[in-house]
């Protein structure tokens, strides 16, 4: 959904050879970006945070189902799963709308085809939101890594408890658990590598006054790479396909 909403805006900017603020003017001041740029910054922030929150829900489910199966069976229902997605999206939308209300500043970055929250320069009111955003992302990343590491530990323990001798079908469950362990490990490493640059850039811009648009662009590219590569890692290293 994020790619489908954001990509046409970028392609239109290149097609007309105009910046996002020129394509969608209407800012309240001369230095304020246009409406389209503000919408783009909101969508970038939302689709960076909302999938991370959903990944945390998936990591928690995996950890509970492997480590606490009785609690999982008793308390986690389909109704809870159905309401969790919209609830997470609504909370992320409210949080990411704060710059539109004045807490944080949307900014157009070079070459004018993308916008995001200003991560360097300005006062506490301007830099408070990117620091809060990066802190929330950092906490989510730490929680996801902790849940996935715990799940990997449970999978490894389950694989070790499988019998080592016997016909081939007896060894199949052990192989399946190790396959899931490898998949979970790859996705955890990829997610962590892709998320950390944005968190680091937000803190450097706020506390070290390091305004570097190229570094900010690289951080956003890393964050985008995760949403592109992660599904393919899941597809390719899924047990049946990988074998």
Automatic annotation (TrEMBL):
Compartment annotation: Cell membrane
Recorded topology in the membrane: Multi-pass membrane protein
GO terms (BP aspect): inflammatory response; positive regulation of cytosolic calcium ion concentration
Domain G-protein coupled receptors family 1 profile: from-to ranges: 1-234
Membrane-spanning segments: 39-66, 87-107, 127-151, 181-200, 220-237
Source organism of the structure: Pomatorhinus ruficollis
Descriptive protein name: PD2R protein
Keywords per UniProt: Cell membrane, G-protein coupled receptor, Glycoprotein, Membrane, Receptor, Transducer, Transmembrane, Transmembrane helix
Name of a matching Pfam family: 7tm_1
An annotated Gene Ontology molecular function: prostaglandin D receptor activity
């Amino acid at each position: 959904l994020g790619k489908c909403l954001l990509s046409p805006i970028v392609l239109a900017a290149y097609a007309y050879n105009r910046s996002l603020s020129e394509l969608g003017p209407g800012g309240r001041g001369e230095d304020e970006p246009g409406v389209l740029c503000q919408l783009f910054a909101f969508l970038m922030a939302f689709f960076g945070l909302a999938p991370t929150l959903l990944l945390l829900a998936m990591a928690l489910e995996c950890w509970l189902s492997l480590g606490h199966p009785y609690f999982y069976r008793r308390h986690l229902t389909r109704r809870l799963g159905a309401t969790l997605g919209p609830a997470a999206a609504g909370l992320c939308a409210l949080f990411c709308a704060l710059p539109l209300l004045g807490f944080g500043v949307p900014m157009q970055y070079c070459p004018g085809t993308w916008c995001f929250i200003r991560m360097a320069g300005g006062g506490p009111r301007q830099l408070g939101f990117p620091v809060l955003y990066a802190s929330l992302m950092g906490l989510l990343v730490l929680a996801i890594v902790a849940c996935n590491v715990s799940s990997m530990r449970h999978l490894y323990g389950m694989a070790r408890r499988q019998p080592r001798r016997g016909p081939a079908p007896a060894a199949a469950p052990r192989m399946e658990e190790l396959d899931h362990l490898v998949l979970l490990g790859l996705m955890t490493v990829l997610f962590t590598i892709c998320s950390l640059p944005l968190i680091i850039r937000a803190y450097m811009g706020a506390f070290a006054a390091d305004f570097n648009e190229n570094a900010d662009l690289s951080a956003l590219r890393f964050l985008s790479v995760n949403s592109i590569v992660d599904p393919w890692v899941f597809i390719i290293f899924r047990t049946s396909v990988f074998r």
